[in-house]
Structure formats: structure tokens, C-alpha cells
Amino acid sequence: MRLSRFFAPTLKENPTEAQIVSHRLMLRAGMIRQHAAGIYNWLPLGNRVLQNVARIVREEQNAAGALEIIMPTIQSADLWRESGRYDDYGAEMLRIKDRHERDMLYGPTHEEVVTDIFRTNLKSYRDLPKNLYQINWKFRDEVRPRFGLMRGREFLMKDAYSFDLDYASARHSYNQMIVAYLRTFARMGLRAIPMAAETGPIGGTLSHEFIVLADTGESAVYCHKAYLDKPIPENVNYNADLSHIVEDWTSLYAAADEKHDPKKADELGADLVSARGIEVGHTFYLGKKYSTALGAKVVGPDGNQVEVEMGCYGIGVSRCVAAIIEASHDENGIVWPDSVAPFYVGIINLKVGDKACDEACEKIHDAIQLQGCDALYDDRDERAGVKFADMDLMGIPWQIVVGPKGIAKGMVELKRRATGAKEELSLESAVSKLSATI
Amino acid sequence: MRLSRFFAPTLKENPTEAQIVSHRLMLRAGMIRQHAAGIYNWLPLGNRVLQNVARIVREEQNAAGALEIIMPTIQSADLWRESGRYDDYGAEMLRIKDRHERDMLYGPTHEEVVTDIFRTNLKSYRDLPKNLYQINWKFRDEVRPRFGLMRGREFLMKDAYSFDLDYASARHSYNQMIVAYLRTFARMGLRAIPMAAETGPIGGTLSHEFIVLADTGESAVYCHKAYLDKPIPENVNYNADLSHIVEDWTSLYAAADEKHDPKKADELGADLVSARGIEVGHTFYLGKKYSTALGAKVVGPDGNQVEVEMGCYGIGVSRCVAAIIEASHDENGIVWPDSVAPFYVGIINLKVGDKACDEACEKIHDAIQLQGCDALYDDRDERAGVKFADMDLMGIPWQIVVGPKGIAKGMVELKRRATGAKEELSLESAVSKLSATI
């Protein structure tokens, strides 16, 4: 992609409306623009990251056996009256009347809709277990939207809902999601720690928040330091018993503010980490709360009707984009982990119009594209300083600098954004070094 | 994917609420379920097709140089007041008040929002041309939602918006979209014909509807028979002049009902095709309608401010899913074109529990997956007739039937859904024949 044809309106100055670093850098890098309070446009650079994050979430949900569906953003109020939550939910629910004066709403969550799908289509214990998820936009009418994507009103979420015949099976479904989440956040370059949590208005009796540690996090968190380098599960067989993995990841002390127990924490002594955290995911074992309210039953092996056991599991997909920036940036801008970067490679042409420079840049660009990988080629007629600054601000993981002096000797400079390490290499070596990492 | 773990609640009987074949078959194949009038849940099978259609649209938009963004579904009414459309739009616009009593709406289209993005971020003729598109949900509050996805309320749409300095450049942007659309619909297995159209409430002076021919189409259409087998442009250089391609595709007679001129049509004699059609896309040259209303200007090469020339280009992504079914089905169900099929290969195990059958099916399943292609393996304990019927209803393009008699000789049956052609092959030949087509 040629930057001259792309659309990334970067800003030199810090926008005054942005109080936290992710909001500031997303505006400055030209990733997002505010449309209205808590409602954002995603520009091309932001959209590319959002899609990468969504892809990782999707791949790990699929690997864990969940099935992707799409539920509507606009829901009928009827199901919420049936579950009893229509009046309870409060002003955060965006309530709407359609042209026939029917009560509708923009879904802040989808327990009612998915339970309705279940009860009208699945009738036998043989259909279980099932885990249905979607990646779709939700709306919560926050009274004071702030912090950019962290506390916005319209946001992209992954929400999964599991249905099981009994507690043991429901617990296995819960464990599948815990393990999938560990892998999902790790693949985004995040260290997310599951912490026991309150269940709140969603209901249920067992719940974990996945909290990313970041100096700029929204709340205080406390955990055993062993969580900082605990290995992420690999080559998981999701059909096998996962309780030992979940046990390993949930038995040591880890608590956000609300659940923090100073006495227990103190017992850890030097092993206690106290830090700031950002919630990026939440898992809930729901039991029969919604299946009872909405009559979601199957015929069990003995011929009797059984209300199904449910769980629900959220990941804030758009929130993850902001959390990654909070966890990975420096004074020059964003430092994207390779897996979510909007472009894996940036090419900086120091002398646009110089035949040797232009040809070398196009050669590199085409070679990278041939690997099935997108490169961002800065072919603008701008000063070198502007180009370096924008490439760092946008956080491109690998940057190749092509200048007239170097290219006369066939050499380019390869820079790693995360470390700042630079090396001079022949054009061919730079391309093959990159290709080997793709 | 094992069908026993999948979620495709097929129906034997025709649902009484469905009046047209696509609606009927999408319900019967377990692709969708209605949530409320004109609002649908997409179950896993439907979601897979929808994603395939969206992927084709995205690839062709990108190839034509358009840049993907995401605009919010919930918009502020302010911009619509500025353009003068807030009062004009009528009851199809879903109007909402947020908790602070601010007027909001669920976007039925995004000219205002994208023009606002343009005017606040792009200032120079050097930034032009730009074409920004999104694939996102829209809502139009139809007074009588009907025909399933054909006239629903919440629907998935691709909408692109081009910005140019002058008419010649705007016309080139328009031509890029025309050519991209020809390729997009062809890749979905549709023959879509661009027909001169009214511009309606969107405005502008030049407009084409892309109409798919289908016996069950919503409106009468008339065109020169040359359109039926005109070759689709291949290896397009979108930077080159495209006017000869567009000329070739728009100069012969083609008109939907409203623009039909019986006198002109009669002149075609035996070359006239009169048929039924379904609109799947629409292109509009808008001129300066929105740039004037919202003040979207750039500094031109001479230093003067110029209002930009715009175009807008829609594809009904969810509508395409229905249109493909209208155009491609038989008495047994859906006949998916390979490119959009939810699964490319179906595997039918005629004797689940038989060691040889089970092993053969798993071997085929794994071999197909290794090609990066998804197979649907019917491992249910059901009668052969039910399995054949469901696989045809779901429209799986290639079907491999594994039975105990055949597999004792190492043989399986390979069936092509579209033609019904069957052949007996060794398991290895069947897999390598399929692999060669992937």
C-alpha cells in the first residue's frame, strides 16, 4: 500500500480531548476519529488492527469448538420482559420505538436472544454441548463516555454462550473458554490474568475477569508474581479434561480492587505484584438463570425435560485495540505486536523521484506482498524526519529505510520498532530476513 | 466440521411464513431464524455464506483501490440536519433519543458521516482521489418487512464513497466501481447487469442498478441478450482508462421497469430478453450535492478552494445471499456456487459406528482440511435418506458418500451437487480429484 494513496491523517500535536495514552495515540496515528460522544469512526489503519484482533479471537473461538453466528443489533423488548431484565437494565440500554411504536432496543448483551435461538431450535440432550458466539457491535449508553475506546458507547464485542446438560459439562465449557482466552490474549501480545470477579447484573455464581497489566490501567490489581511468566497452553486438545490448566491459572492469588483481600495478599510477601490493570474479557458461569426464565429445556437421556446450564463469555474486541496500545507504546508512538500490526513492514523512501530509490522500494514492496504480507510504502514527498516519525507513531514493526547513498552500494537499513535496533543490510538480505519471519 | 457438533437445524416442511424461495430455503437449511419482523439471526451455516460473500466484496473493493473503514451504526442527527435530509428521510429512518435526549438515528446510509470524515481530515487536492468503504449493518424501518432478507430491516451492506477533484476523475472512480461490481457478482456466481436507474433520494445525475436475472425476481427487466454471456473483465488495471469496459457494458439496451422504453426495446427484435430481476448493487455519481451541503472542500492546484465531486456505491451483502439462492436452487434445495458455499465438501457416512466407514470418513475429512478447505462431515446416527436430503438442502457443492459395501473395495461415491453427476472412485482418487479443484 502506498501511503500517498492510503488515508492515515496523522497529527503532530496531542489532541486536548484525549486523557489516556491509547486514545491520544489512536487519534494521532489516524486510526480513529470521534463521530459523537463515545462513538467513533475507524479509519483504514484502525480498521486493519481491529480486523486482526477479531481474526485472532475468531480463530481461537473456533479452535475451542464454538460456532460463529450473528445476532441482530436491534432487538425486540419482548424477550427482555420475559427474562425480567427490561426494567432492571437501566439507562445504559438504548431504548427505541420503531415506526409501529413497538419497543425495541440496541443490544447491550445477547443472553435473551441466544437463549431464544436455543429454545426454538434445540430439543434433545444429544444436541449438547453447544457454544454459540458472535463478533458484533453493541451499544451501551454510558452517562459519561470517556477514555476513547475504553469507555465508549458503540463497541465491538465477542460474546459466546454455552449450553450444557449438567454442571460437569458446563464447567468443561467454562474451562474451554478460559483456556481459549489465555491463548487469545497471548497471541495479541497481551499478558492477561484471570481474576475471580463479581458476577453483577449478568448473574451466575462463578466468574473471572481477564485483566491486562498496564501502568496506565483503569484499576488497581494484585496478583502472585508467578502469573507474569506462566507459560501459555499450547497444542490444546479442547475435548480432553482442561481442569488442571484452569486450576494452574486460577489457584494463585489474583484480584482486582473489588475482590482484593489485603490479608491474603500480604501472605505472599515478596511474591505479591501490585499493579494497574485493564479488563479485556469476562467469563460467567450462569447456571439456569436464563434457561429457567425463558424455558430453554432439552429432553434428557431419561426422557425428562431438563433446563440447560449456561455460561457466557465476552471479549471487548475494540477495547483490546486500546489495551494493546496501553501495554505497548513508547514516547514515539505505538509499538504493535507483530500479530496485530496494521502493516507488518514499512518502507521509507528517503528520496522520492530518485530512480534507484524508487525502484528499490517498489522491489521490496512487491517481494513482501508476494509473501502474502502487506507493506506500507511511504512514497510521499515529505522530509525524512516526518517519515520516520509517522512510521514510529503508527507502530510498524519492521521498517526498511531506502536512501540514495545506501542504495548506490545496494544497501538499506532495517529497523525493528520494538527495540529500535538498526542494521545495514543488502536489499536482498533485508527482504529474505523479513520473509523468514513472516 | 462434524455435523453432530454443528448447529444447522434443518426443517423438512416448508415454513408457512416464507413466500419466496430464498426465504424458504434459508429457513429450511437452518441458515437463518427470524428474531422480529425483518430482523434475523444468522445461524452458523448462514454466517459462513455471509462471510464468504463479504470476503469477495472486500477483495474486489481493495483491488479497485478503495480503503476499508468502519463508520458507526448509531449516528448523531446533527449532520443530517446540516445536509437537509433529517426531515426528508421519512419513517424508514429509525430515530432514537439517547439518555441525554439527544437526537440520534440508526444509519440507513452514510453519505453525511463519510463527508464529515472527509472534510475534517483531508484538505488538499494531493489527497485525492479517495474511495472509502465499509461493510456494516444498516437499518431501514420498512413499513411491511417481507420476503426474508430481500426486504428486511437490519441488513449487511457494503457502501463506498468516492471523492475527486473534478468530473473526469469522479467519472474514473465511478468506472472503477462499475468494473469492480462486474467482477464481484461474477465471482459469487451471479450474472449481474448494470441498468440505467433513477437516482431517487440519494441524489446525483448518473446511476446504475446492478440487476441479477432470476425467474423469481422482484421486478420485470429488459435487456439485450448479449448481456447474458458477455465476458467479465479479467486482470484489470484499475489505474488505466476503464471507459471502454464501462461503455461495452452500458451501451446496449438494459432497463428495469421504471426506466423501460417499450419502443426502444422493440427495436431489438429477437435480441430482447425480458426477464425478472433482483437488485444487488447500485452506483451513484453524486456530483457536489453533499460536498456543497457539508462544505467538503480541498485546496486545488491553483490555491483555490474546490468542493469535491462525490460518488456512492452500494452492494446489499446480505441481500446477495438471498439473490444467489433465487438464481441457483432446485427442487432439493440450494445449489451454492463453489465460491460462496458454506462448506466446499460434504462427507456422508452411511454407517456410523462401522470401523472402516468411520476411518475412511475421518481420513477424507483430515485430507480436505489439510488443503485449507472446510468439509462438513455428516457423522449423525440418521437414515441415509435424511443425510442425502440435508446435504442437498444445504447445497454442498461436492459430496462424498462412504458406505460399508464400497469401502470394503476401497471405493467411495463422489457427487457434484450442481449437475447431480455421480462417479465411483477409489478414496484416494476422490480426494485428489477434489484437491485439484480447491
Q: Which helices and strands, and how do they pair?
A:
Two copies of one chain form a homodimer.
Chain A: H1 21-28, E1 32-36, E2 39-42, H2 44-63, E3 67-68, E4 74-76, H3 78-83, H4 85-88, E5 94-97, E6 103-106, H5 111-121, E7 130-139, E8 154-164, H6 167-187, E9 192-196, E10 206-213, E11 219-224, H7 243-250, E12 254-256, H8 262-266, E13 272-287, H9 289-294, E14 297-299, E15 305-307, E16 309-316, H10 317-327, E17 329-330, E18 333-334, E19 345-349, H11 355-370, E20 375-378, H12 384-393, E21 398-402, H13 404-408, E22 411-416, E23 422-426, H14 427-437
Parallel strand pairs in A: 3-7, 19-20, 19-21
Antiparallel strand pairs in A: 1-2, 4-6, 5-6, 7-8, 8-16, 9-10, 10-13, 11-12, 11-13, 13-16, 14-15, 17-18, 21-22, 22-23
Helix pairs in contact in A: 1-10, 2-6, 2-10, 11-14
How would you describe what is shown here?
- The structure is a homodimer of 438-residue chains.
- By secondary structure, the first copy, chain A, is α+β, with helices and mostly antiparallel strands.
- Helices cover 32% and strands 28% of the residues of chain A.
- The first copy, chain A, has 14 helices and 23 strands.
- Chain A has helices spanning 21-28, 44-63, 78-83, 85-88, 111-121, 167-187, 243-250, 262-266, 289-294, 317-327, 355-370, 384-393, 404-408, 427-437, and strands spanning 32-36, 39-42, 67-68, 74-76, 94-97, 103-106, 130-139, 154-164, 192-196, 206-213, 219-224, 254-256, 272-287, 297-299, 305-307, 309-316, 329-330, 333-334, 345-349, 375-378, 398-402, 411-416, 422-426.
- In chain A, strands 3, 7, 8, 9, 10, 11, 12, 13 and 16 form a 9-stranded mixed beta sheet that branches.
- In chain A, β5 and β6 form a beta hairpin.
- In chain A, α2 crosses α10 (317-327) and α11 packs parallel to α14.
- The longest helix of chain A has 21 residues, at 167-187.
- The first copy, chain A, is globular and about 80 Å long.
- The model of chain A has no long low-confidence stretch (mean pLDDT 95).
- The interface between A and B is large, with 54 and 54 residues.
